Amino acid sequence: MPRVRVKKTSRGETDLSSYSTAYEEVKAGDSLRKAAQKYSINHCSLLRYIRKRDASGNEDEGMGYKAHNRVFNEDQEREFSKYLIRCADIYFGLPTKEVRKLAYELTMKYNLSRPRTWEDNRMAGEEWFRMFMKRNPELSVRAAQATSLSRATSFNKTNVDVFYDNLSIVMDRYNFEPQDIYNIDETGITTVQKPDRVIARRGSRQVGSLTSAERGTLVTVTFAVNAIGNVFPPFFVFPRVRYQDHFVRDGPIGSTGTANPSGWMQDESFLRFLEHFQKHSKVSPSHKVLLTLDNHSSHVHINTLDYCKNNGIVLLSFPPHCSHKLQPLDRSAYGPLKKAVNSTCDAWMRSHPGKTMSIYDIPGIVASAMPLAMTSSNIQAGFRKTGIYPYNRNLFTEIDYAPAFVTDRPYPENTNERTERPNPENTIEPAVVPIFNEYPSEDETPPLSPSLLTKELQSSLQTTVEQQALHESPVPIIQQTPRTRGSIAIYQEISPRPSTSAQAAIDHSAFTPEVVRPFPKAPPRKCNKGRKTRKSTIYTDTPEKEEIRKEHEAKLKRTKAKLIKKSLDGRKGKTTMSKGKRIISKEKKYTQKELSSEESEEEECYCLICLAPYSESRSGEKWIQCTSCKQWAHEECTEGGLSYVCHNCDSEYSD
Predict the structure, then answer these.
(1) Lowest-pLDDT choice from 23-37, 308-322, 415-429, 631-645
(2) Contact at 8 Å (CB) between 600 and 585?
(3) From edge to edge, which strands make up the β-sheet containing 488-493?
(4) CATH number for the domain that contains residue 276
(5) Cβ neighbours of residue 301 under 8 Å, at least 6 residues apart?
(6) Which of 135, 172, 407, 613 has the fewest CB atoms within 10 Å distance of its CB?
(7) Terminal CA-to-CA distance of the chain, rounded, Å?
(8) DSSP 626
(9) What is the pLDDT of residue 504?
(10) 247-300 pLDDT, tens digit each
(11) Model's pTM, two decimal places?
(12) Structural contact between residues 388 and 379, judged by C-beta atoms closer than 8 angstroms
């Protein structure tokens, strides 16, 4: 028998209203056959309709074939479909096999009839899943895009509202026109491209395409665009010790660059870029511009903020880990740019067979790819899709904020605070039952024993227990632990008791997949000491800038203290033991030049994911190094593994 039977006749497709009208005429006195002939209805079908309606008394009695072996009814499948969509919205979508397992678990939970093969395989069948997807066309099997936990957590309504509040403040304060609203961002381009699709023999298991190496060398490219669609010549950061002008000989007209051993944007490199930006934007204290950017450590250095303040550049930062939604370059420009760069690299490899691509060929490749990707329409679309210009703070909906549902929980300092809520008139006040601490601290007096309870307290406790036993909806008891210090009693609140089994049965009577598999929810937040989390800030305002200055000065003091201590330890010639051998450390004198160089190197070590400095790491916290760019990141911020490649070096991520 075919899976989907195609009906070839119109038999049995009569409208239900015709049956209802014929039923009324038969009840009024007309004959059954006459009424059936009048409305073109089979008289046997009309007779069955009359008997069913008389037996049930339901005017909406249906007619026709009904599935006799269907596992879930229409309402249950509708709830199942809503649950699957919600899981996908919070970035915890279920694959095909998990959906089939969940369907079997639902039949077990609600005691529904199911095929015998479901029992053998402990999951629903492939045929059921195929027909379920056909009955619910709003569902489809999609390839999920990898999204980091930090991005899903940080992009929430609170952080986004702070950014739009700051944007409205600077727009009202300076009345910026669209040509004065800029966005800058860095991206990495490697010498190993992601090949385009090619035509090959059908059935081939593997089709290859040449690249210059297995792991490429990264060159950082920085672009600056404004809201009317203009783009400045790019700024390159090469992984070299010294920069030479011939590095960008084949690059776009007007482009320049700098160099450092890592090839990443650093404090001095960003100052060079700001000089390049000032040259092309003609910014001055009398003609200010707005520059939106992320919270990278090089962007919020005190030297950078002083330069921007003196030259009329107003810096506004995005919330951390929100650039994939709020940064115009990420939304509409860098995706087409990476595709154009990959295609240009393929063409370069075909034009130079047997030759390895170097970092000095990248400026020429960028010059060919820029006109294809950095168009005015793409840039304007980026500012429009982020709500920066035209200003639109209500651009994002609840679906956009849905991934933050999993980690939406209070901060540690607010978990023990009791919020006062108005109680309805018919709500029973929660009872407070004191219990006693058996292990007081040394500075506390011994707790009261239960024998010293007053009669009034014992009677109130007994009344509360009786009241809980009598009521269907029991009184929530908030247990509190009194600890005395002198004559002052301190109470510690404990969570209330759960509801009774009767209430749970009422709550779970309706069909909902969430009973079997609840939506994932992160545990309470842990107190994260030592790290300072950035937020959307107008960094060129005086209070924010002075706060950054204080942080910078405190960091310099800590770094100098560590280096001086290290120098003194070396001079003393401390001895250590390693595998039974005595090792004497050599004396080393640190000059001021060495202190400043080591100090700058230590300042440059920041986590690639959360941008937290190494000097503020917690005790015992582990760091992991990227195998390509040799930069560091917290092991907690990455997925772990034997080898780690950061998102800037991974070409697949950048696409």
Answers:
(1) 415-429
(2) no
(3) 431-434, 477-485, 488-493
(4) 3.30.420.10
(5) 267, 270, 548, 552
(6) 172
(7) 46
(8) B
(9) 36
(10) 999 999 999 999 999 899 999 999 999 999 999 999 999 999 999 999 998 999
(11) 0.67
(12) no
